[in-house]
């Protein structure tokens, strides 16, 4: 009896695993197809600088629109793209698009650097530097106009490679930000030693900082540490005025979140910048 139960349980699990594997395979095929058909879009979300009183940068965020018009979240397909290696062509596509769009904005009179998310799989790829420098050069965008966002996980592994890549990026004038800061485990020594320009405080801390004192304390500590290491600070996921005011009080100058703008297609971002410009003039 017990044996029978064990067997049926085994069958249940193996069928569930097979179903998951099939779903991933299907998703992989769809990603490949979407790449070939150039279906992926890049949206942009600006970051607001208090001291400048204007938008100072924008983040490129990939979007996958389905036939019915709905969008699939990158949180769903980026992990599959990473596991299948498809993140390599996907990541270059985003970088290329982002450089060209930032250049277009520059020519329209808006000098706003663009920040591009880089997955750890891309970062560790042998040709990563060549890809970045090649794409940047081909686009014609000045290097100071490009920033790359990596996560803490990248810092924690393969120190020799990480510092080589970061040094090269710095030597070429490309800025580097640590995304979702505070969620991983960064050694403070790495932060001090590596050429990093920006810390992006994870939105999880910002979300709860008004109701949870320890989150507010963590944000405060990150800001102080960033200041001590001479890093720029950006807060992600700012949704209301109270959060913005508190962040400003704590010394965080650059804010990103729905309070200022949602990620939007390039044309909409351009309109937003135009209208802000007119308002300021
Ligand atoms: P991330 O880089 O930390 O990006 C921030 C995410 O928070 C974005 O989600 C953005 O739309 C969302 N967000 C912005 N403001 C707010 C806010 O005020 N409230 C809330 N609740 N959310 C806000 P999105 O676009 O779904 O991207 C999710 C993640 O997918 C990104 O997190 C990034 O890790 C990854 N990703 C997106 N595009 C790319 C890409 O081109 N390449 C790679 N490798 N990863 C990407
Ligand atoms: Mg990011
Ligand atoms: Mg983030
Ligand atoms: Mg994230």
UniProtKB/TrEMBL annotation:
Residues 24-277 form the EAL domain. Signal peptide: none annotated. It comes from the Bacteria. This is Bifunctional diguanylate cyclase/phosphodiesterase. It comes from Ectopseudomonas khazarica. The chain holds residues 286 to 566 of 566 of the full protein.
């Amino acid at each position: 009896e017990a044996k029978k139960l064990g067997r049926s349980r085994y069958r249940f699990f193996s069928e569930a695993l097979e179903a998951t594997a099939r779903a991933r395979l299907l998703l992989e095929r769809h990603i490949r197809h979407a790449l070939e058909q150039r279906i992926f879009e890049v949206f942009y979300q600006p970051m607001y600088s208090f001291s400048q009183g204007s938008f100072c940068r924008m983040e490129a965020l990939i979007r996958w629109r389905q036939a019915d018009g709905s969008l699939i979240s990158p949180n769903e397909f980026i992990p599959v793209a990473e596991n299948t290696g498809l993140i390599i062509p996907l990541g270059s596509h985003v970088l290329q698009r982002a450089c060209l769009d930032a250049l277009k904005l520059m020519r329209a009179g808006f000098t706003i650097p663009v920040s591009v998310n880089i997955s750890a799989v891309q970062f560790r790829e042998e040709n990563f530097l060549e890809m970045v420098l090649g794409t940047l050069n081909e686009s014609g965008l000045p290097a100071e106009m490009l920033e790359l966002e990596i996560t803490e996980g990248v810092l924690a592994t393969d120190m020799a490679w990480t510092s080589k890549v970061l040094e090269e990026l710095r030597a070429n004038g490309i800025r580097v930000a640590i995304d979702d800061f505070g969620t991983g485990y960064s050694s403070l020594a790495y932060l001090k030693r590596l050429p990093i320009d920006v810390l992006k405080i994870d939105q999880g801390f910002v979300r709860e900082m008004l109701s949870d004192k320890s989150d507010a304390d963590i944000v405060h500590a990150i800001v102080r540490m960033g200041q001590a290491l001479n890093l720029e600070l950006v807060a992600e996921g700012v949704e209301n005025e109270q959060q913005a005011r508190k962040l400003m009080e704590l010394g965080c100058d650059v804010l990103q979140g729905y309070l200022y703008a949602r990620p939007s297609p390039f044309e909409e971002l351009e309109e937003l910048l135009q209208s802000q410009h007119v308002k300021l003039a």
